[in-house]
């Protein structure tokens, strides 16, 4: 049973979308579903339909869960509230796109998800464990084990070869091994860069440098790949190739892929879209095209 509620039928009570994690308590429109005599509430038909594909999964613990997360820079009259009560679920193996206009809080949210920053308040859960109060060293260990990062800027070390750049995470994490080095070499073959392994970044094109940056993100075989506008500095053809590589790792190897993007076409390929506006998530996940034209 599915119902769409509006302001004439709703009182403000505790409601949370089990799929995307949004707190619907203050929203006057939502979708209601009854499943095995239990009621569930959703921000849109999109989440409601996804819930129906696997109710058991979406009643479990997501891989990453942000609960009422705030991020405030500065104090007093000059305080800037960049994230304002964010509630988000990210499920293992999903491709999640984070979208929104410039200044909406996308990169700040991605920093929270990737353990690059701590929230000012709220809970940040990884595999059910609240890590919002962990130390810098503890977060660094988790990042090295769980996450791989691909940024808009390639950030390759200019005096190292492409191959040496790609294996840097193995060295820094103390997990260097012949097996992992061989895996990296195979990745170079798979993406058509094996003949460029001994070249330095200045001898590579932008697309080649970004592919090396992607292999660097995969060196430790992370469970989660984080991309902050990973195709932003590339032409459309090269950008599409990088995107296809990321999606391939997501689908073929089951990696959880989380990307910040301004590109609506990229977002539409995701399993889940998180749309931000003024530091808050927008219900419905249908408004991403409008966001880019504001």
Tags for this entry?
294 residues, alpha/beta, 11 helices, 25% strand, disordered N terminus
Summarize this structure briefly.
By secondary structure, the protein is of the alpha/beta class.
Could you describe the 3D structure shown?
This protein is of the alpha/beta class and 294 residues long. The protein is 33% helix and 25% strand. It contains 11 helices and 13 strands. The strands form 3 sheets. A 6-stranded mixed sheet has the order 9-10-11-6-12-13, with helices on both faces. The protein has a 4-stranded antiparallel sheet with strand order 5-4-7-8, with helices on one face. A 3-stranded antiparallel sheet has the order 1-2-3. A hairpin with a 2-residue loop joins β7 and β8 (129-130). α8 (206-218) runs parallel beside α9. The two termini are 36 Å apart.
SSE diagram, text form:
Blueprint: E1 2-5, E2 30-35, E3 38-42, H1 45-53, H2 55-58, E4 64-73, E5 80-90, E6 95-100, H3 106-113, E7 121-126, E8 129-130, H4 136-146, E9 147-151, H5 162-166, H6 168-173, H7 178-190, H8 206-218, E10 224-228, H9 236-253, E11 256-260, H10 264-267, E12 272-277, E13 280-281, H11 288-293
Parallel strand pairs: 6-11, 6-12, 9-10, 10-11
Antiparallel strand pairs: 1-2, 2-3, 4-5, 4-7, 7-8, 12-13
Helix pairs in contact: 8-9
Mind describing the biggest β-sheet? 6 strands, mixed
Put simply, the count of helices is 11
Overall pLDDT confidence: 84
* Topology, number of strands: 13
């Amino acid at each position: 049973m599915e119902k769409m509620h509006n302001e004439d039928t709703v009182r403000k009570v505790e409601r949370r979308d089990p799929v995307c994690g949004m707190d619907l308590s203050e929203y006057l429109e939502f979708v209601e579903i009854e499943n095995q005599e239990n009621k569930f509430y959703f921000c849109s038909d999109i989440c409601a339909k996804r819930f129906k594909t696997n109710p058991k999964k979406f009643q479990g613990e997501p891989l990453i869960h942000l609960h009422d997360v705030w991020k405030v820079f500065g104090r007093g009259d000059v305080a800037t509230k960049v994230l304002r009560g964010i509630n988000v679920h990210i499920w293992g193996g999903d491709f999640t796109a984070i979208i929104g206009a410039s200044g909406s809080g996308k990169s700040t949210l991605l920093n929270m998800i990737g353990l690059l920053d701590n929230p000012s308040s709220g809970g940040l859960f990884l595999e059910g464990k609240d890590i919002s109060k962990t130390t810098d060293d503890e977060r660094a260990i988790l990042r090295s084990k769980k996450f791989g990062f691909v940024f808009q800027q390639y950030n390759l070390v200019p005096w190292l070869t492409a191959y040496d750049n790609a294996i840097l995470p193995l060295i820094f994490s103390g997990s260097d091994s012949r097996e992992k080095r061989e895996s990296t070499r195979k990745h170079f073959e798979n993406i058509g860069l094996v003949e460029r392994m001994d070249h330095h970044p200045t001898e590579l094109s932008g697309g080649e440098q970004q592919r090396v940056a992607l292999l660097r993100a995969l060196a430790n075989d992370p469970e989660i790949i984080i991309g902050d506008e990973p195709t932003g500095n590339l032409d459309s053809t090269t950008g599409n190739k990088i995107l296809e590589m990321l999606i391939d790792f997501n689908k073929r190897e089951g990696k959880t892929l989380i990307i910040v993007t301004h590109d609506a076409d990229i977002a539409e390929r995701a399993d889940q879209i998180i749309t931000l506006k003024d530091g808050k998530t927008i219900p419905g996940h249908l408004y991403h095209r409008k966001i880019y034209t504001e």
